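Q: Convert this sequence to structure tokens.
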Amino acid sequence: MNRSLVGKTLFLQPGLLETGITQVPRFFINPQTDPQQTHITSANAKLEFPLLDLEGVADDPIKREAVVDAVHEASETWGFFQVINHGIPEAVLDEMIDGVRRFFGQDEEERKKWYTRDLKARVVYNTNFDLYSAPSANWRDTVYCEMAPHLPQPEELPAVCRDIMIEYTKQVMKLGRSLFQIISEALGLKADHLVDMKCTDGLTMLLHYYPECPQPELTLGASKHADSDFLTVLLTDQVRGLQVLYKNQWVDVPSVPGALVVNIGDLLQLVSNDRFVSAEHRVVVNSSSPRVSVACFISNAPRSTEIYGPIEELVSEDNPARYRATAVEEYATHYRSKGLDGTSALSHFRV
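A:
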């Protein structure tokens, strides 16, 4: 990438779009893209993207067993699934999406007040966290904020979306605890095993905006990558764009009203000793409409020194530990320095 082309106030919305550009600038052209590349969708390939109904899962043992089995299968094969009847009110989901749109709909000068490349800041607004290390820039803007274990004070957050960010965090933290209990059971462990390991203590929220793109076949909203956390909960505005690498083919994640997308992160693959997979995924952009999403990364506190290795109960003489133990901070530092370069960060920690 020609970094000289990237100024510190480069934003994709409204910046590039307001210039009326008709071609993607060279430093956004992604070497992973292929204009002739084909992908399959859940519809035309008759695939059943995992969709789990969580209604009654806390009270009905039969329903819970079925959901645990479904999570086990999805986490082993896809690394992704969707959940409905998850307990977060539809009004909260809608307001969260509206809050993202309000932030990115502000005047550029108002948004730029939150601009920084200091990832230790409470709120970070910029165009790509790995702008100076990745092979190319991604076609998106992002607001990044650490929301747990220490909830920000309201004045620390953008006024146009602060209330819903706080409320949505509380809702996702509650859901996340339930999901980790189900995942623990799916691994053959006691329900609170992963919770007791403090896997659910921290939450980082990313507000993504993917603008319309004049040449969507040349760039990506997010390059191929796996997530660096234990578990990600994703809310979208129902505009398609997320694709999962499944059996060496890119598969569109279907739009299901009211559903949340859940995916296994690298750290969960590590502690599960490869039982569950942190699947690679990407985001494609389009020329007809922008896309909004909210990703909640659930992990230990971002700068935690807690050490994680393969869980003892999942290791045996026939199935030895496949990773060395690491701290969350060490893993995150390696992940950030590598950037979204299309390679696995987990490989660095294999033994």
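The longest helix spans residues 162-186.
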